[in-house]
Design brief:
With 130 residues, this protein is mostly helical. It is built from six helices and two strands; from the N terminus they run αααββααα. It has a two-stranded antiparallel sheet with strand order 1-2. A hairpin with a 6-residue loop joins β1 and β2. The N terminus is likely disordered.
Length: 130
């Protein structure tokens, strides 16, 4: 009997996000490469199991045409961040991006470069409105 892909719970777990971060930074990688990039703290078989589950959940794509197999994320870093942020914004901030940003900036300050980029974004959004 063929196994059906697992349905994604919507967002990657913290451990899955660590693996995704490695793959976004490095590009398609083997289990061993991901394991080493994570510092080798867990067993190689644990990383393999996580990556198999992530493939079943639709978070990773496996290239079985080469040995060892290489894995890559199905979604980009930006798309994944956007999905996670949308969920937080809806659940915690009742859909208000302004309240989310205000809370984020008041909780943890932004660097001068981040503030400059925020100002540029606000200027662009205002010029598009009017």
């Amino acid at each position: 009997m063929a196994r059906r892909p697992r349905r994604s719970s919507g967002h990657p777990t913290d451990a899955e996000l660590e693996i995704l971060q490695v793959l976004w930074d490095r590009g398609p990688s083997t289990v061993r490469e991901v394991h080493e990039a994570l510092g080798g703290e867990s067993a190689n078989t644990t990383v393999l199991k996580f990556m198999q589950i992530m493939t079943e959940k639709g978070l990773l794509r496996r290239d079985s045409t080469q040995r060892p197999q290489r894995f890559e994320p199905i979604s980009s870093r930006a798309d994944t961040q956007r999905k996670i942020l949308d969920g937080v914004m809806e659940r915690v901030f009742r859909g208000s991006p302004g309240n989310l940003v205000l809370q984020a900036l008041s909780t943890k300050g932004a660097s001068a470069e981040e503030r400059r980029r925020i100002r540029e974004l606000l200027d662009r959004l205002e010029s598009e409105e009017g």
